[in-house]
Hints:
By secondary structure, the chain is an alpha+beta fold.
Amino acid sequence: MCVIGSAVQGLEERALNAWPAPQTLICSGWAVRAAGGYTKRANSANALAGAAPVETVVAPVEAAYARLGQPSIFRLSPLAPAGTDEFLEAIGYAALDPTLVLHRPTAAAPLPPDVQIDHVLTPTWAEGFAAANGVPPARRALHDRILAGIVPQTGFATLTQAGAPLAYALGVVERGAVGIFDVVVAPAARRRGYGLRITEALLAWGAAQGAREAYLQVVAANTPARALYAALRFAEAYPYHYRIKPAP
């Protein structure tokens, strides 16, 4: 069942806090975020509750991204004012990456013994995640900077088999909800259920930290990930997508 109104606002606020951009400009109810180009979530303009019509902010948003040497990107959640998508399309912005926010209740459960959860980012986790996810060295510093900037409670999960770390994931708990991010399994260990297992571990960890709800974001075209989350009884909360200004 899709969520509406204040529930969307609450999930949007938590998700922005869980994936912080090192640089943020607030412009008439839009959070213009920048993180050196690492992930569109951290490098796009996001409508907050009560955001001004997009036609009044396009110019300052484009100017801000031009100063940073980045493309102008808008992330359009249900909080975007009516007509935003149509306006951006009319001025040439291209649509990309339809994405779903999924959610479900949490429930108390024991943590599996093969999953370790650290409350702070460690070099071992950062290096292992980067290797498993193929993050180039030049981009890893940008990723680590985002992770180091998270203010709410964090859980950096590692699944190990026979002494070898095989899967990684991040949980962020804020105001009764746990967000799940950065779920990745080492290429040689995929299709063995480790992604499901480490996600279950973070659901249990989040419940133990007082979270009553879990949420995550998945690209709509990512069929394997959507099947995984459906198996875990996640349901759609709401969709979003991006609009990007083409390069001249």
